Recover the amino acids of this structure.
């Protein structure tokens, strides 16, 4: 069937297309400028966020649960004492199934006393009953579709062009909506500033050419940090992608985390 | 050393069972009793307004005696609706940023606009058009400060001609028509704030806005029944039974729809048994047993459904005094039940970890910002404001025209005839 296109219709469509063509780059430019301004608050003046794409990865096979990363983060970022963490390390213990139970595996126990900073107590069962035990460092999942950014009523939390998800503390109203929306429990309301806080990838460090504190102190290189816009094939982050099959947490939520894990079990959420 | 430290952590959080992300292991939920009251009060506003709209838009004559009371109820509660939200903010002084620089993808960002629209463009205007002629009359007949107040409320529009009054009625009607979707928007929107949180399986639910709207209507009508009966009792008047029966009828039908949708929600959850269902099941059985099974389901739904349903069937055989008691107790139970429902949604959604591996207990403190005392004050405040409104705008000593002429000589209703 032939579609009839009236003159009025056609003119309308052309007008809309032209308006769209004119508006889109302008909007994009405005957005970039705004974000640059926001980002520059924490970064050196000559730092250009559009030239970087920071990313983090975790190789859980390497993590020994020393908790140095969580401790370094607390100190580096002046994270308040108590149950407030920008990063932490969880311990998973999967027991063997009871004989004759017909199950493939036993129970899964998870703990993380004080974020893992001071280590872990003895496992509550003898070694022989444990099928698997491993540690999983947790931090901001750097979601491509961040629910925390989506729900912030004032836009105080935002995706920086270089991949970090940041919060403007002078703008945050402390409603806690982002904390509710983060599926990974990576945010908290600071009792000191009364604003939301989270992992910034140590923005004040990475914009000055340093690594995040947790990456810096990790004795086993379980945490890998890199810049996707400026990395060479032999960079640790590229090596990580090359050598591992990776997964992300809670993929069914569609947040598309850019933080990839290697060596974790299905029990990790 | 390790053991000692672990024990300290356990001492701080004895109320946690299983595992929670470390940031979740706080002593009380992030959104606490203030956020329970916020949807509760907003729902009462929406429900009371829809109740009033039955008179204006759907021309339900029997409800005329409660029209103004319902409108004033909606107004008094609307004034208090944002207070819990405001007090809860970490930085309340930055609250205007929500309206000045809203982030348009946020379900919370538009609340300021929806609220302002509803308060300024719908409720205030409709009340003003409804009362304008009375303000003119009262400003002439009332001496002193109160008279001056009425004169101020006229905003200088003293025209009492028929044409002018007709225009008032016409605009009032239009505003009422606009007000119904606005009331739905206001409260459906509050439901969406919770329903949009996909990280939380208790909240992230497409039915949430509809559940909120229906429970709002139920609670709003129940509040009007409660207010009407209390006010007639205080004034030693007789309750207009026809009006009460009709209110009871609407309350029953709204409750049937509300109960059906909430049941549908649970049936869907149980049948699909998605991730997190086990923890929700545990919550319903253990942590929320009193507020969910007893408060929301038994007190707030089943008993009122039975009482109101019975009255629909055998109303004529029940003596008036019994009917009054049944309506009053149903309204009270519904008001408690809907409050329990808000509690179950808001607090319930935070009593389990998003790791779905642990649950926590919660004991509300007495004093403090999130305590019983503050909750009680915020819940009583709208009634205090309503009392002032009733004294000012629904006084027995004031002659009233109203938007519809009174049906008969006054004693049966709260609106004495114009002298």
């Amino acid at each position: 069937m032939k579609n009839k296109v009236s003159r009025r219709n056609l003119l309308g469509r052309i007008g809309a297309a032209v308006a769209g063509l004119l508006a889109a780059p302008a909007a994009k430019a405005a957005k970039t400028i705004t974000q640059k301004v926001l980002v520059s608050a924490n970064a050196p003046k000559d730092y250009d966020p559009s030239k970087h794409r920071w990313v983090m990865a975790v190789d859980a096979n390497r993590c020994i649960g020393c908790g140095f990363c969580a401790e370094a983060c607390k100190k580096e970022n002046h994270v308040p004492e108590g149950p407030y963490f920008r990063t932490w390390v969880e311990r998973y213990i999967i027991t063997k199934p009871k004989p004759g139970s017909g199950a493939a595996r036993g129970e899964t126990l998870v703990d993380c006393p004080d974020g893992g900073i001071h280590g872990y107590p003895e496992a509550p069962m003898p070694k022989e009953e444990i099928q698997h035990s491993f540690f999983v460092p947790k931090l901001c999942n750097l979601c491509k579709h961040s629910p925390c950014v989506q729900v912030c009523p004032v836009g105080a939390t935002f995706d920086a062009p270089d991949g970090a998800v940041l919060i403007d503390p002078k703008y945050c109203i402390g409603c806690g909506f982002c904390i509710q929306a983060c599926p990974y429990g990576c945010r908290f309301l600071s009792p000191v500033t009364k604003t939301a806080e989270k992992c910034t990838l140590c923005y004040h460090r990475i914009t000055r050419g340093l690594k995040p504190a947790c990456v810096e102190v990790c004795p086993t290189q379980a945490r890998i940090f890199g810049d996707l816009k400026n990395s060479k094939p032999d960079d640790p982050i590229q090596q990580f992608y090359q050598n591992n099959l990776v997964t992300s947490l809670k993929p069914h939520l569609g947040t598309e985390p850019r933080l990839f894990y290697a060596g974790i079990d299905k029990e990790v959420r | 050393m390790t053991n000692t430290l672990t024990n300290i952590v356990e001492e701080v959080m004895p109320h946690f069972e299983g595992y929670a992300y470390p940031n979740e292991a706080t002593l009380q939920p992030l959104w606490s009793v203030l956020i329970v009251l916020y949807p509760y009060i907003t729902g009462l506003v929406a429900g009371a307004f829809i109740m009033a709209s039955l008179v204006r838009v759907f021309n339900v004559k029997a409800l005329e005696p409660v029209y103004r009371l319902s409108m004033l109820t909606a107004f008094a509660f609307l004034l208090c609706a944002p207070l819990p939200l405001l007090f809860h903010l970490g930085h309340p002084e930055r609250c205007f940023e929500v309206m000045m620089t809203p982030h348009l993808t946020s379900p919370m960002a538009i609340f300021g606009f929806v609220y302002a629209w509803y308060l300024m463009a719908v409720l205030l205007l409709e009340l003003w058009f409804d009362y304008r002629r009375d303000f003119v009359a009262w400003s002439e007949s009332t001496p002193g400060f109160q008279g001056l107040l009425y004169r101020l409320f006229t905003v200088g529009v003293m025209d009492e001609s028929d044409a002018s009054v007709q225009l008032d009625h016409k605009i009032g009607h239009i505003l009422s028509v606009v007000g119904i979707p606005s009331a739905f928007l206001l409260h459906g929107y509050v439901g969406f704030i919770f329903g949009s949180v996909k990280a939380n399986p208790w909240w992230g639910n497409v039915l949430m806005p509809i559940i909120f709207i229906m429970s709002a209507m139920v609670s709003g009508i129940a509040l009007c029944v409660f207010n009407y009966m209390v006010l007639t009792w205080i004034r030693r008047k007789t309750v207009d039974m026809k009006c009460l029966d009709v209110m009871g009828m609407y309350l029953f039908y709204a409750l049937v729809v509300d109960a059906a949708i909430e049941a549908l929600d649970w049936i869907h959850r149980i049948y699909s048994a998605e991730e997190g269902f086990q923890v929700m099941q545990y919550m319903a059985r253990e942590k929320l047993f009193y507020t969910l099974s007893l408060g929301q389901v038994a007190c707030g739904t089943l008993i009122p459904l039975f009482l109101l349903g019975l009255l629909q069937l055998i109303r004529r055989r029940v003596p008036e005094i019994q009917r009054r008691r049944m309506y009053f107790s149903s309204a009270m139970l519904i008001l408690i039940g809907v409050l329990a429902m808000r509690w179950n949604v808001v607090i319930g959604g935070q009593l389990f970890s998003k790791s779905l591996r642990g649950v926590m207990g919660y004991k509300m403190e007495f004093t403090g910002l999130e305590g019983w005392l503050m909750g009680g004050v915020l819940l009583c405040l709208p009634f205090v404001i309503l009392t002032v409104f009733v004294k000012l705008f629904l006084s027995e000593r004031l002659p009233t025209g109203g938007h519809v002429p009174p049906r008969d000589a006054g004693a049966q209703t709260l609106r004495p005839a114009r002298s």
Remarks:
- Chain B touches chain A through 50 residues (CB under 8 Å).
- Residues 20 and 121 of chain B are 45 Å apart (CA to CA).
- The domain at 24-264+366-393 of chain B is CATH 1.20.1630 (Formate dehydrogenase/DMSO reductase fold).
- The mean pLDDT of chain B is 88.
